[in-house]
Amino acid sequence: MVIRYFEEGSSKKIKHDWVAIEDISKHLQLAVICSEDQNFLNHKGFDYEAIKQAIENNKNGKRLKGGSTISQQTAKNVFLWPQRSWLRKGFETYFTFLIELFWPKERIVEVYLNSIEMGNGIYGAESASQYWFKKPARELTKYEAAAIAAILPNPRKYSANPATTYIESRKAWIVKQMGYFGPLDYIKINEGKFKN
């Protein structure tokens, strides 16, 4: 947050309110998993298929796209700095391994949703919910949650409310993915019984 504050184009404001996972709508938890890392519940921190696909896309000169999981993004956001480098990637790998070893999936989602930027200078689910929809994060509807998840690739550029045509189409896709995915059940996940 501090590094982002001093970057060019920053709003020079920071809004951040940490809330427990119980105070974050299940809709938002699911929307973010469906938009950012659909294999989150099955992998141990690294989605090798997504990494392989990202390498292929980058090799073929297609739009630069990462293969980072929610666990990797959590490691980067909480413990590291935003600039890309091989050194940072090495530390990210190390911290991702530790996060997956010691934290249940529910804790990873909680930390992720409380640490990511969800608007220019807006950090975490509670601040984003208040900023975009004037309500607590626990009260977000499926469509409001999908709108916030839709802006995550570039939260400084996109608006969750009012949404552009592009964000509306992303939001519709996310809601559809949420329907395919089904409800989140962290008890089954932590017992290793979940298969998407």
Q: How would you explain this protein's 3D organization?
A:
A two-stranded parallel sheet has the order 1-2. The model has no long low-confidence stretch (mean pLDDT 84). The relative contact order is 0.18. The protein has 10 helices and 2 strands; from the N terminus they run αβαααααβαααα. It has helices spanning 2-6, 26-36, 48-59, 70-79, 86-102, 105-115, 125-133, 142-150, 165-181, 186-190; strands spanning 15-16, 122-123. The chain is mostly helical and 196 residues long. Helix 2 (26-36) packs parallel to helix 8, helix 4 packs across helix 5 (86-102) and helix 4 (70-79) crosses helix 6 (105-115).
Q: Structural class from helices and strands? A: mainly alpha
Number of helical segments with 4 or more residues: 10
Distance between the termini: 33 Å
% residues in beta strands: under 5%
Rg value: 16 Å
